[in-house]
Specification:
Elements: H1 3-6, E1 9-13, H2 18-29, E2 33-38, E3 48-51, H3 57-67, E4 71-74, H4 81-86, H5 88-109, E5 114-118, H6 135-154, E6 157-163, E7 165-167, H7 175-188, E8 206-208, H8 209-222, E9 228-231
Parallel strand pairs: 1-2, 1-4, 2-3, 4-5, 5-6, 6-9, 7-8
């Protein structure tokens, strides 16, 4: 039998992002047949790179049909809390509408594929509006709600992951990266030597992005459909 025919096919959205780059490397190393979807094509040795805007329904439909994946790791979207205040509709379009386009394409083209949707530890409780803190949180919460709804209504194999703050090599929009950029700018003399933190009592959980990607693979192989899995370290830090 053709060895390529035996390989599992995985579609990774947001493949050019912080987590996406590590996910592509991980699944390539594990000998998956990888389709790396991103807005702007970039070099990704060994993977099939496809330029796709998830806000364009036709592009998403063609992406899913051509990739014909067994697994889909949905990482695409916007994830900067600060800019979500200035562009809330952009975040809803990217994180919610883009996800709906992907789910619809799966429903029509590969209804048996397993989808892992990467949510966020910053999601809020929809039954308690006091837990809503910014538009990014709203968009990620809606992303998960529509994923759960489509899974229930159309019997899709959706697994939800809620990763904590991801750290590791590469550029990210996470809190550690933001602090590091500010400190580097201070050392260069480009900014005042002041680091503003909104809540000194906040305790945050951090996990290496490569461990998160490994966890995503476990969810593909062993996760229960329509379940939510938190991906986090054993303890938090202040």
């Amino acid at each position: 039998m053709d060895s390529k025919a035996m390989r599992k096919r995985i579609l990774i959205t947001g493949a050019s992002g912080f987590t996406g780059k590590h996910a592509v490397a991980h699944f390539m190393k594990k000998d998956y047949e990888v389709t790396a979807a991103m807005r702007k094509e970039m070099s990704c040795e060994g993977a099939s790179v496809v330029s796709c805007d998830l806000e364009n329904e036709d592009q998403v439909m063609k992406l899913v049909e051509d990739a014909n994946p067994h697994y889909i790791l949905h990482l695409a979207g916007q994830n900067h809390v600060g800019s979500s205040w200035e562009q809330p509709l952009s975040y809803v379009n990217s994180n919610v509408i883009g996800t709906l386009h992907l789910l619809e394409a799966v429903r029509k083209k590969v209804p048996t594929a397993r989808i892992v949707v990467a949510g966020s530890a910053l999601q809020y409780n929809p039954s308690d509006s006091s837990t809503l803190t910014h538009p990014y949180s709203f968009s990620k919460t809606m992303q998960i709600l529509v994923s759960e709804a489509w899974a229930k209504l159309y019997n899709l194999d959706v697994v939800t992951a809620k990763p904590s703050n991801l750290i590791g090599p590469g550029h990210s929009n996470g809190v550690c990266s933001i602090f590091a950029k500010k400190i580097a700018a201070m050392e260069k003399g480009d900014e005042k030597k002041e680091l503003h933190i909104s809540n000194l009592e906040a305790r945050r959980n951090f996990i290496d992005v490569r461990d998160a990607v490994t966890a995503y693979e476990y969810l593909f192989l062993f996760g229960q459909s329509r379940k939510v899995y938190e991906i986090a370290a054993p303890s938090c830090h202040s």
